[in-house]
Write the structure tokens for this entry.
Amino acid sequence: MSQQADNAYYVPHGTHWPIVGSLGMITMLASAGLWLNGSNTAQWVFYLGAAVIVFMLFGWFGDVIRESESGMYNRQVDSSFRLGMAWFIFSEIMFFACFFGALFYARALVVPWLGGEGAGASTNEFLWQGYLPLWPTNGPANIGGEFQTIPAFGLPFVNTLILLTSGVTLTMAHHALKAAQRGPLVAWLAATVILGAIFLYFQVEEYHHAYTELGLTLGSGIYGSTFFMLTGFHGMHVTLGAIMLAVIMFRCMKGHFKPDQHFGFEAVAWYWHFVDVVWLGLFIFVYVL
Amino acid sequence: MSSIADTGITHVHDDHDHDHKPRGFLNRWLFTTNHKDIGTLYLVFSLLMFFIGGSMALVIRAELFVPGLQLVHPEFFNQMTTMHALIMVFGAVMPAWVGFANWMIPLMIGAPDMALPRMNNWSFWILPFAFTMLLSTLFMDGGGPAAGWTLYPPLSLQTGNSFAFVVFAVHMMGISSIMGSINVIATIINMRAPGMTLLRMPLFVWTWLITAYLLIAVMPVLAGAVTMLLTDHFFGTSFFNAAGGGDPVMFQHIFWFFGHPEVYIMILPAFGVISEILPTFSRKPLFGYAAMVYATASIAFLSFIVWAHHMFTVGMPLEGELFFMYATMLIAVPTGVKVFNWVSTMWKGSMTFETPMLFAIGFVVLFTIGGLSGLMLAISAADFQYHDTYFVVAHFHYVLVPGSVFALMAGTYYWLPKWTGMMYSERWGKLHFWLSTIFVNVLFFPQHYLGLAGMPRRIPDYSPQFADFNKISSIGGFAFGLTQLIFVGVIVHAVWVSKKKARARVWEGAIGLEWTVPSPAPYHTFEKAPDIDESMVPHADEISH
Amino acid sequence: MNRQNTFIVAIAVLAAISAAFWLLLVAPALTGNEINMPVGVTPQSVTHYELHMIILWICVVIGVLVFTAMFTSIILHRKSKGHEAATFSHSTRAEIAWTIIPVLILIGMAIPATTALVQMEDSTGADMTVKITGYQWKWKYEYLEDDIQFISTLDANSNAARQLHSGMDPREVENYLLDVDNPVVLPVGKKIKFLITADDVIHAWWVPDLGWKRDAIPGFINEAWTYIEEPGVYRGQCAELCGKDHGFMPIVVNALPEDEYRAWVAQQRGEAVAEAQAVHQDWTDEALMSSGSEVFASQCATCHQQDGSGLPPAFPALAGSPVATGPVADTLDIVIHGRQGTAMQAFSELLTATEIASVVTYVRNAFGNDSGDSVQPSDVTLHGGEDS
Ligand code: HEA
Ligand code: HEA
Ligand code: CUA
Ligand SMILES: [Cu+2]
């Protein structure tokens, strides 16, 4: 139970973390811009900015964790966090929806038009004669050269199983937490993190294979663009999720969280499940179909 | 702070109780978690941006004063058009509404602060950096972005060194908006005082709740779109390149999937403010409260399925054109309900015409004109003529300037006494209103004629047949701009000079929680949630009975 | 305030607001300014004009009614007149009415709008086809059946007057910004199909008198059609932001009666034949330089500037440029093939071998680039070299 009376909402007084975060962000993005424009020294500034952001995250969450552990948060604060996390995840879903939308639009409309179907008859006849609207494609100009795709029922399928299993292990961890069993809790969490790491390892493996042997790159026309953007952003989210899970695991080892109040844990679990579901969409729409 | 946990007392704010604001400039403004301070920061920032964006508009109007190129090169002109729009939309209007949300939502629903106060600080403090970066692009090799605020590829991919910075600035604005709207949602859903049921909430709160959902749904899509531009530019992807199987028009679909809801993001809170002000000065409850809520929700829903009305001329299949035309026309229905309900609110009231009311009335009239010209644009066959002409420019400035911006001004006059504790000068306020209203029409009405007569938008120079109306429009533009200095004068006067103290209930006809706290609103309000009963809510519709 | 008074005030307000709208809609025309959409000279333009007028009047009537109700109330129901506020706060019946009635009005608008759209999209059964390609900042026209092709750019007088600080008065220039060197010539009384596309960025082809505009999108072809009923010269402009000279790529349609049109076609074919022969001829350096300077002024100067100084970094200077002073092959290559992903376009699509030879000679010898060499039309392999 919270030590606070139920009608007092905890409002912190002042915080310097946001401004640190903003400084980190501007350092990172401004130097990323310079880097893209060809400045090599900017690269190091970029890492500095990223480090500042990591520092900020530790500091900020550290404050929150301390306050939470010392019982300053009542139920209402807890629901604010829940709402915040839920709608943050929704915004992430819309971010992925944007790239899925690009994939569907390109496959269902653009490629057929370029190939002369529907409204595209003249387009094909005058501009891209001889182009056949097949998927996968790198477009009528064969941008990026010949390539092969990664079959769905190889590593990607294994990865699907791995992520699904990690969802189960995470749920087991949650049950353990609710039953106040620290040992199993940490063990299941560790399993989840390890599964995430294996997933990432395979993903890197797959990218390496694509770049070195299949000729499939980010520059392989629309197929390569959608493939790498979708799987790439997903991979970044898995990485983040795995790091967050690891942090949660260390917190569990330190005895944080209570069986009836452990939103930090749940937030990360939600995130992980979201990443999981996105992968299912990817597996179906990018690899299988 | 540490005392809280071990004493177990309810008192959260014991280190600087009640009106003891944090000491020191940095503590007060840079590190603040107070919704009122953050609201003030947002409002001041957006006013600054309004002036910067407005100055760019004046560069545009000055160049268009007479035919021929007199002042700037065409490429700089295009940068001005692009930056003017980006700054007005993302820097002036949107942050201003977030500022209002910060100040007013907790006061209106009886909450001690926003739900996530630290994040609130971050949402704001991203913006100055984002806009510094955006503005700095004007000084880079090749200049700032010049492809229009819509950033259509392939043209936007020809941007010089500034390209990546523009994309990153948009990302930052997006992050800020998303955090801001998450905060609004969490606050409204979670922080209402007991008795403040959803259908007792003031309309401003409702419209912001719906706006926040729109924001969360579309800002990430914009982020995705500009990310694809970035990779097309730097990493060889082919999203918008037909040779690689992509399509430049795909960008337009994605952009407008964001862009159309975006325009309602700028107008829904305006609808809310107007729905607060009209009842107050008509001394009569808002007509059809429930219908207003449903109409807002319908507009928001429809806004997701009309985007391609910005693209009637790209060569969509016939079925697509028809669908988007019909869907767009439908938006007139819920918007009409709003307009009719506002008129009915005034009908048989006991009206007085203080500055906020004047601006609200100006809003209703001029927004309706802008909405009706929007309806004309929605007729796709006719849009084959209207599209990309000054008729469109006239349409959207009518809904944005005497629409969103007038509502912002109305709201500022309405709540300024609550914010500062001092009455502003009615006389100067009214002068500001009358000059603004006259000149905004001198500025934008002739643009309808220009567009119909065939003047394309985004051109630095034009055929002499368009000279007369351009001259009138430019004169209107400069006069409207100068008039806004009065606004600054009125605010400065109210904050630092005025001797006239405001009462808690500033306006005779005002009902609502925000009027139950003293003016200026104390630094901390509603630390103990008030119990809400019907007399405290501003409307008396069937639902709340 | 009794009902009768309300009624009288409402009528007065209605009259005043109607008068105001009338003034706005009609009076400015008395000054001699065009303030409405042109009726145009095609079936589509007439349809679109009529549609525009219908919706305009519907909107005006709605506006007048709403404002009448509002201002009547503002005049009568004010506190200063001692009006007491009523307390009603809703009326389900009224709200249903003002939901249903607008829906009916909208349906009334949707019907003619749908018909117009269906007509617009039907480009079948055309008598001839013209392919239009937008470039930064010119248009290329190809008559597919007659094998004619040419480019159309801003007229030289307008071009001189429109420079920043040109000191010229635009009003003195005939058809300022709405004139081109080569207008597109079309026959009246024929259904003409257009295939519209672009080479670099998106443009839009728009002549108001024809009644529509259509985007020109790189990599895709949009179809549109027209049927011009009256001979005449019709002017329009590019209608999609396409870079710095977006305001300076006009369109001029010269609609001719059938026989005059045929004569024009014959003349164009004659010129094309002469052109083809010129390739085999050897040119003097002076001839190359003078023709090159003309081509440069009309084709290259928008980007690289008349004095070759360019607008770095967007458009590099040609004066002293490594490419223009290096091997001839490199200069030829960039002019013929352009550079993918930049504004530098492939001029093999736009210029003849003779023109390319002369402009390359020119850029290699003008602005202090004194390579001294010259390029003959026979050195220019327009299509053979394209794949290499
Ligand atoms: C606050 C911003 C805002 C708002 C509220 C609107 C509202 C509307 N807009 Fe507008 N619009 C913009 C901002 C806005 N717009 C911008 C910025 C652009 C240009 C972007 C760019 O290209 O740069 C644009 C462009 C734009 C276009 C594209 C034009 C083109 O490029 O060719 C279209 C086309 O359909 C359109 C339609 C509409 C419609 C139908 C509404 C409707 O919501 C209006 C509804 C209101 C009414 C209709 C009036 C009140 C109703 C009644 C009194 C009821 C009775 C009425 C009837 C039954 C008729 N808008
Ligand atoms: C909320 C959004 C918003 C707002 C408030 C405005 C406000 C104004 N806008 Fe703009 N505008 C857009 C959004 C907005 N605009 C958009 C989205 C576009 C499309 C861009 C594109 O095509 O990509 C556009 C485009 C646009 C154009 C078309 C440009 C073109 O097609 O080339 C023009 C031209 O007249 C214009 C003018 C103005 C003017 C005069 C104002 C005025 O209301 C501004 C008034 C304010 C001031 C003038 C500043 C205050 C005063 C001072 C600085 C004091 C000093 C004053 C003097 C010395 C006189 N705007
Ligand atoms: Cu071509 Cu605008
Ligand atoms: Cu829209």
